[in-house]
Design a protein that fits this description.
Elements (H helix, E strand, L loop, with lengths): L17 H50 L7 E10 L31 E13 L4 E11 L10 E12 L6 E9 L20 H4 L6 E9 L2 H12 L11 E6 L14 E11 L6 E6 L5
Antiparallel strand pairs: 1-2, 2-3, 3-4, 4-5, 5-6, 6-7, 7-8, 8-9
Length: about 290
């Protein structure tokens, strides 16, 4: 009897049939497509992030260019001083034709029948035009047109000058305009830093209102400039940086007055600032200058 033929079949060691292999290939193709789609999305997001970074950098560069413009470097500050003035002995009325006893040069607030008054109302506009030119403008809104007349709170020019430096470190500079005359300590010290509201009349009478119109040359080495800045940061009452050496010529007529005699004044000023090791404090040695 013929029972038929037999064929030996090799077992599938992978455990997959042909049908399973077909499905496996389809799944791999689908996975590859998903990966490609994810890569594409990541590339798009990467490009967007790069575009945003470039936009931010461009904005910063544009802002930096605008900040470099001189009118964006103008600083504004100011201060006000309110005063109450009343002599304990009462008003002193001068005889007819005589000069009143109660008075002070350049201060119309010291007089009879005076109580509350503004001693100073100042605004300061300052800034660097470039690395070599600086501007400074200060009006006062507590001035009077004439101290003998009962009026006040008029805007009057106090400082208006330009500093012209010969180097970027500003070690050598010329100051042109109406500014403080480098004479004495109190005259150079700002009223907002001085303990007393007013300067002593003996020194202030030499340069009324501390200012005049002229040209002044200053030499201030870089290390000395740093010492002056350190003094200011510590809140010490300084006179400001007027250099180790200062020379100047000015009209000699006082603040906001025109020249009347073609005779210029000459002033010389010298000071030196040195640091000490005691509590890291700073001391200043100053030679009080005199008009020549």
């Amino acid at each position: 009897m013929l029972m038929g033929s037999f064929e030996q079949v090799q077992p599938n060691t992978n455990g997959y049939s042909k049908h399973d292999a077909h499905h496996s290939g389809t799944d791999q193709t689908s996975d590859r497509a998903d990966i490609d789609a994810i890569k594409h999305e990541m590339e798009l997001e990467k490009n967007e992030i790069k575009a945003l970074e470039e936009h931010v950098v461009a904005q910063r560069e544009e802002r930096a260019k605008n900040d470099e413009k001189w009118f964006n470097k103008i600083n504004v500050r100011g201060y006000t001083q309110l005063r109450y003035n009343q002599p304990l002995s009462g008003d002193r009325v001068a005889e007819k034709g005589e000069v009143p006893e109660l008075r002070s040069p350049g201060d119309g607030g010291i007089k009879n029948n005076s109580s509350f008054s503004f001693r100073r109302v100042r605004l300061v506009f300052s800034g660097d035009v470039n690395d070599y030119v600086s501007l400074y403008l200060q009006p006062d809104f507590a001035s009077s047109v004439d101290s003998s007349i009962d009026n006040g709170n008029f805007a009057q020019l106090r400082d208006a000058y330009a500093d012209l430096a010969f180097d970027k470190k500003h070690e050598y500079r010329i100051r042109a305009g109406q500014s403080k005359v480098p004479f004495g300590w109190e005259n150079l010290q700002s009223s907002q830093n001085r303990l007393a509201l007013d300067r002593n009349d003996a020194l202030n009478s030499a340069v009324p209102s501390e200012r005049d119109l002229g040209l002044f040359a200053y030499w201030s080495p870089e290390h000395v400039q740093k010492l002056w800045k350190d003094l200011s940061k510590k809140g010490l009452k300084t006179s400001g940086d007027y250099g180790i050496l200062g020379l100047g010529i000015y009209n000699g007529q006082g603040i906001n007055r025109n020249e009347t005699n073609d005779d210029l004044y000459v002033v010389a000023h010298s000071s030196y600032l040195c640091a000490t090791t005691y509590k890291s404090s700073l001391v200043s040695l100053r030679l009080i200058p005199c008009p020549l």
